[in-house]
Amino acid sequence: MSQARRHFEQAFAQWLGMPYAFAFWKGRVAMYAILRAMGVGEGDEVILPGYTCVMDVNPVKYLGAKPVYVDIDPQTYNIDVSRIEQAITPRTKVLVAQHTYGIPCEMDALLDIAKRKGLPVIEDCCLAMGSMYKGRLCGTFGLAAYWSFQWNKPFTTGVGGMATTGDAALAGKIDELYRLHAQEPAFPTAWMLSLQRVAYRLLIYPRTTALATSLFRWLTRKGVVVGSSSQAEFTPQMPGGFFTLMGQAQARAGRSQIGKLLANIAHRRRMQRVYDDLLRQAGWPVPPLPPYMDPVLVRYPVRVADKTRAIAEAPKAGVELGTWFECPLHPRETPLDLYDYQTGLCPQAEQAAREVVNLPTHRRAGEHTARRSVELVLGIGQVK
Ligand SMILES: Cc1ncc(COP(=O)(O)O)c(C=O)c1O
Fold first, then answer.
1. CA distances from 154 to 70, 129, 130, 146, 211 (A)
2. Atom of ligand 1 minimally distant from the CA of 127
3. How many angstroms separate the CA atoms of 338 and 184, rounded?
4. How far is Cα 158 from Cα 172, in angstroms, rounded to an integer?
5. How confident is the model over 171-191, as a mean pLDDT?
6. Which of 185, 215, 279, 365 has the most neighbouring CB atoms within 10 Å?
C-alpha cells in the first residue's frame, strides 16, 4: 500500500469533510470504480447532462450500461432539472450531477427528484473543487463524488482522480475493487508523468499554453508522453490498463496541492469577480447566478458570436482560450453515435458547444491576463 497515496486520500477526505477517499489514475477511473461498486451493469441506464466529456461517458459504456442525456440549463450549463423526470425509466440506476465549469447544479431540486424516484446521485466534481451550494461543499450531497486532477482541472497531479463517499457500504465495495482489481501504474509511465509535471511548472503560462498544448498533443499521438486521453478512449470498449490507481509521485504532488487549496480557491473567486467586472463595464450581459450558488470556477465560460474566429485569434493575441465543450460529448472527434447521442437530442447543449469559450482562472493568470482575454472576447462580440 502506497503511503503517499494514503496521505493524499486522508488530506483530501479531511478537506472535503467526508470519511472515505480513494485515489485513482484519473477522474474517469474514479467514476468507473464508483459505478462498478454500485453494481451498475448491462442494461442499466445512467442519466448525464448532454454537455460533458466523452471520458465521463466511457465508464458507463465499459460497464455495459446506457448513457441517457438530458439537456442543460443555458445559464448554468448544468443538467436542466425540469427535464430529468422525463428521462427516468425503470432501468435508470444513477443520476450524475456534473457541476459544469464549477457552477453548482440545482441540488435541492435534483435531490428531491432522486428521493422521490429512489435513485442515487453521484456528483461529478471534476470541475468544481471548493464550489458551494447553499453553504455546503459540492461533493457532499450525493452518495459519492469523483474528482479530477488533470492538467487543466482545479489543481493538477498531471493526471489523477479521486472517488469520495460518506457511505460505509459503498466505500467497502470501492475498497475491495481498489485492493483486489486495480493495478499500480507502470514505472515508466509514472516516471514520464513526473517529468511532465516539472515541464508544466516551468513552461506553462497563459501566453505559452496554446503552443505547449499543440506540442503536447503531438507528443501524445507519437506515444512519447502520458496523454490525458488515448485514441483507444474514443471507442466505448475499455482499453487494457484502464483500471489503475494513483502513483506515489502523483499522490505526493496532490498532497502538496491540498496545502495550497485555500489560496487556489480564493484566487479563482477573485478572477471570477475580475471577469464579471471587466465584461459588465464593457456593457456585456453577465446574468447573476442565484445567490445561494457560490461557484469556484475552473474556467470562466463566456458565449461569443464566432467561436471559430475566437479560437483562431487567441494564440496570436497570447490568450489561453479554452474550447470545452466542443460538442455534447467533448471533444469534436467523439463518434457521437457510438455513445448513444443523436444530434438534436440536447439543443441547448449543442448551442452552448457552438458558442461557449472559456478563460483562465488559475493562479498563473492574473488581472493582466483577464484584461487581455476580455479584450479578445469583446473584439469577437456577443451572441445576438
Ligand atoms: C466534466 C468532466 N468529468 C470527468 C472528466 C474526466 O476526468 P479525467 O480526465 O481526470 O479522467 C472530465 C475531463 O476529462 C470532465 O471534463
1. 25, 6, 9, 13, 21
2. 1
3. 30
4. 28
5. 94
6. 365
- Residue intervals in the chain for CATH 3.40.640.10: 3-180
pLDDT per position as a tens digit, 134-157: 999 999 999 999 999 998 788 889
Class of domain 261-380 (CATH, top level): alpha beta
How many Å lie between the centroid of ligand 1 and the Cα of residue 208? 23
Q: Would you say the CB of residue 250 lies under 6 angstroms from ligand 1?
A: no
- Find cell 444530434 and name the residue: 343
- Nearest alpha carbon to residue 226 among 213, 216, 241: 216
Query: Which pLDDT score is estimated for 228?
Result: 74
Write down the pLDDT at residue 213.
75
CA 242 to ligand 1 center in whole angstroms: 14
Report how far apart, in Å, the C-alpha atoms of 309 and of each of 120, 121, 242, 317 are. 42, 39, 37, 12
Pocket test for ligand 1, best of 77, 150, 152, 356 (most atoms within 8 A of CB): 150
Query: What's the rounded mean pLDDT across residues 310-315?
Result: 95
Q: Is the pTM of this model over 0.85?
A: yes
Q: Which atom of ligand 1 has the smallest separation from the CA of 98?
A: 1
Our answer on whether the CB atom of 148 is closer than 6 Å to any ligand 1 atom is yes
CA of 222 to the centre of ligand 1 (A): 22
Task: Ligand 1, residue 161: give the atom nearest the CA.
Answer: 10
CA distance 222 to 375: 36
As annotated, the residues of the chain forming the CATH 3.90.1150.10 domain(s) are 261-380
DSSP secondary structure of 259-280: HTHHHHHHHHHHHHHHHHHHHH
The whole-number pLDDT of residue 377 equals 98
Q: 58-115, pLDDT tens digit by residue?
A: 999 999 999 999 999 999 999 999 999 999 999 999 999 999 999 999 999 999 999 9
124 Cβ below 6 A of ligand 1: yes
Q: Is the CB of 126 under 6 A from ligand 1?
A: yes
Residue 148 grid coordinates: 479530477
